[in-house]
Amino acid sequence: MYRQILVADDDQKYQQILWRNNSNENIRTYKLKPVTYGLASASFLATRCIKQIALDDKDNPNLSRVLQEDIYMDDLLSGADTPNNAISICKDIAYVLSTRGFHLRKWNSNSTEFLAQFSEHSSHDTRVEFSKDSNESSKVLGLFWNSSNDTLGFQPSLELKPPLTKRRILSESSKIFDPLGLLSPCTVFMKIFYQKLWLTKTDWDSPIPQQLTEDWFKFQKAFNAINYLTVPRWVILTADNTVELHGFADASSLAYAAAIYCRQKHNGKIKVQLLVSKTKVASVKQVSIPRLELCGAHLLSKLFKSVLRTLKYYTFDVFAWTDSKIVLSWLSGHPRKWKTFVANRTSEIMEVLPTKHWRHVPSKENPADIASRGIDPKCLPDCKLWWQGPPWLRLETSSWPKAEYSCDEPSDEVKAEQKSVSVFNLFTHTSNDVIHGLFEHYSSLTKIIRIFAYCQRFIKNCKKIASQGSSISSSHINTTSLTFSETKTAEETIIRWVQGFYFQEEIRSIKKQISLPPKSPLRSLHPFIDEHGLVRVGGRLQNSQLRFNSKHPIILPSQHSISELLIKEQHIAHLHAGPTLLAHVLRQSHWIVGSRKLINKCIRKCLKCNKFKTSTTTPQLMGNLPKHRVTLERPFFSCGIDYAGPVLIKCNKGRGTKSTKGYIALFLHYVVFSARRGAPRHIYSDNGTNFVGARRKLDEIRKLWLSLPINEAISYYLSKSSIDWHFIPPSSPHFGGIWESGIRSVKFHLKRVLGETILTFEELTTLLTQIEGLLNSRPLSYVNDSDIECISTLTPSHFLTGDVLLSVPGELPSTSNHRDRWELLQNIKRGFWKKWSSEFISSLQPRKKWQDAQPNLKEDDIILIKEEGPPGTWPMARVLQVHPGNDGLVRVATVKTQDSVLKRPVHKLHKLPIYPN
After folding, report:
1. How far apart are CA 860 and CA 856, in angstroms?
2. Which GO BP terms apply (predicted)?
3. How far is residue 226's CA from residue 154's CA, in Å, rounded to a whole number?
4. In this predicted structure, which of 465-479, 719-733, 890-904 has the lowest mean pLDDT?
5. What digits encode the pLDDT tens for the residues 437-453?
């Protein structure tokens, strides 16, 4: 079956083998195209292919159902109400599977008419007998099936000889295959034996203790004495029958068991037959018998759930029986009345079997008792209680046991599992209620702080009036606008309350000067409490020259809404900054535990940010970075240029003024840019008409100046400072991703702040300068959320000003020699370049997308050029020339359409499947 399934071309590289016919040949590598035996995914792939066939043929419901439910790997086990229906279904299945390369063989059936039909129509399909005797038994999924009398059979055979080891016992016992648990009274001994064996801690290949050896051989001898044991395969389920399912549960000190029986009434006759059973050994820990009885009831509920799911096409009356009155008492009460062990299991039981389904059965008439205690294998074939259930189950309901228990006076065992109710007196502070209420009713942190500051002022005014009485004048009552000190005090009070609520253990440990709990999230931060009672990061940066808030940021929990409101406030204040910049800004004053996850969550919830999300894809392997991107040069030695717009700007302020279109460029004027940043040597841009025209005009002016007999110094200067202007391929913005990303970031902040507002030129210039400062303050490398030393991160502004543009200047050095200061600046400069080489350059090494190389386009390939509009309108073209990179991969090609020659990136070209002849 596996060899009929072809693996996808991209995955065949994971199925390689090395081969040579003899030692003199070179080793050759082969790829296995079909599914290979032994792989973890092989069985899934085979089953999934069968399911896909069923989904493709869902127009035939019977066929689709059989393919999805009745095929187990390469075995088909199904049936029908009549031989004709069975023949029709099997012919359809055989035809459908054969068209996909799966050919059914070795048919067998309990119907001679069915076998005759298949032997006539298919000479390849033969009936195979697996046994040597004349009872015509075939092995079906590990069970012997006698097709003549339609019975399932067991023929146990354990043949172990001394010495016994763990490995040999497990290998031999795995030969007993009993999926329905029909042999549970015998196999439960083996489970109990395994548990005892494991408690001895014997090695896999060491002899087991003598006592266990004797127990095993005693069981093996009795088990092998069982003759060929048979049970009817067909459980009569027809529309004319009244069918009931009866489940029994019981437990002993060693194991607990559950068994389900099918009770049918047809033409006045009642027939009971064992359907399925299951056993489990008791825990090695000491567990009370009532609890084990409850585990048996829990096992019965899960077994019922499985049976009802399998027999989903039938409707049954369900009855559950147990001989434990304590379990029935627990099931009659609400789960929350009991302790955890009982509550968890009773709630799960009642989801499947509510209280009305449960009844009491005497222990002697409970067949599950046989499975929980075990039975001599010789007695199993003739044990009617096990195979047919209690005798009264074959009688009318009036003969069934009556419930003789009452829950009015619970027993001591029941009371032992009841929860004890404790009464606590809760005291809360008014300030806590006020702060909690503010966070519930307001979504702005600034507003919450100001409201609480007014509350604190009101309390102070009330205290003044209470202390001085009516003699106080109105001038002594503060009614002015809030001051900075008042809002700061209010903010500190709120943060102290939040920290006290979430960091109680940590604050208690800090005050006692003992170590923090091992599982505390603040343990690595080495926190301390400052003079205002705030918990701050201790860290290892005490000797740095950073501001106090940067060295010791305030710690906040991610669970409280104050952290989310703070992130939201800074996100908006910094023009809807992204996660990396936002984490860097927050780290200057606050340390939010687990901030990375919370920041991403807040940005996802931002409505404005969600309006501008886009995604693009391209197939070819991501190319290597250009030389100028990874070479140590001064800033702006090589630069990319792009523009954005149009943006409406006002000619001047006031009403009625006209607006005109403005465009944002990487630099507004070459002279201004050169004066600010220095003249560039290389300029890269896309193929916009403005840039192509600009390059052409510059070349014309340069040639004109060089051709005129003017000052040789000017000619020498122009030739010396000439600029190389490079164009990326047309319609391939990802070739200029570094500046396209910059333009996108400018638009990102501009759209969210500007909206529909129209600014004047001066106002727009101010806003763009502010955005320029933000972009030059973004960290170049990843900001580690768990690194407490990662507070000052390398940014582009470090190469321009030596510090972050958004940072507040620190205190001036008290004494400083000019030479020492110059050496300090040189060391800082060398540190910047070292950090650039070690952190930033290494971060560019991995290919984070486009990680698989695709087949190259070739000359004369017929392609479609992807353009805006439906695919039906895309023009057809032929590849004239390919332009491979240094790695040999083609990312750009020159193509010829019906009326023009174009250069396009390969992700805009779709190769048509056209072959010669």
Report:
1. 12
2. DNA biosynthetic process; DNA integration
3. 9
4. 719-733
5. 888 888 889 999 999 99
Q: What is the C-alpha to C-alpha distance for residues 752 and 764, in angstroms, rounded to an integer?
A: 14
Take residue 706 and report the two structure tokens written for it. 């060089």
Helix (H), strand (E), coil (C) string for 72-139: ECCEECCCCCCHHHHHHHHHHHHHHHHHCCCCCCCCCCCCHHHHHHHHHHCCCCCCCCCCCCCCCEEE
Q: What is the pLDDT of residue 675?
A: 58
What the block records as the tokens of 314 is 């039938």
Phi, psi of 847 (to 5 degrees): -90, 105
For range 728-736, the mean pLDDT: 69
CB atoms within 10 A of CB 65: 15
Work out the pLDDT band at 719, boundaries 50, 70, 90: very low
Residues paired with 144 in a beta bridge: 139, 153
- Asked if 839 contacts 831 with a C-beta cutoff of 8 angstroms, the reply is no
Q: Which residues pair with 892 in a beta bridge?
A: 883, 905
Written as six digits, the tokens of 404 are 């003789």
Q: What does the block give as tokens for 682?
A: 């290389």
The Cα–Cα gap between 119 and 103 comes to 15
The structure tokens listed for 296 are: 């048996």
pLDDT in tens, 568-605: 998 888 888 888 888 888 888 899 988 888 998 888 77
Angle (CA) 50 51 56, round 5°: 100
pLDDT digits (tens, 9 = 90+) for 45-87: 999 999 999 888 888 888 888 888 888 878 888 888 888 888 8
Cis? peptide before 209, omega within 30° of 0: no
Q: Are 824 and 843 in contact (CB under 8 A)?
A: no
CB 315 within 8 A of CB 289: no
Q: Are strands 137-140 and 75-76 parallel, antiparallel or unpaired?
A: unpaired
Q: Which residues contact 125 (CB under 8 A, 6 or more apart)?
A: 104, 105, 106, 107, 118, 119
- Of 30, 42, 38, 29, which Cα lies nearest the Cα of 1? 42
What is the pLDDT, as a whole number, of residue 738? 66
Task: Give strand pairing partners of 139.
Answer: 144
Q: What torsion do the CA atoms of 841, 846, 850, 856 make, to the nearest 10 degrees?
A: 90
Q: Give the integer Cα–Cα distance in Å for 304 and 302.
A: 5
In angstroms, the CA 667 to CA 647 distance is 16
What are the CB-based long-range contacts (under 8 Å, 24+) for 631-634? 632/833, 632/836, 632/837, 634/678
Q: Helix count (H) and strand count (E) of the chain?
A: 30, 28
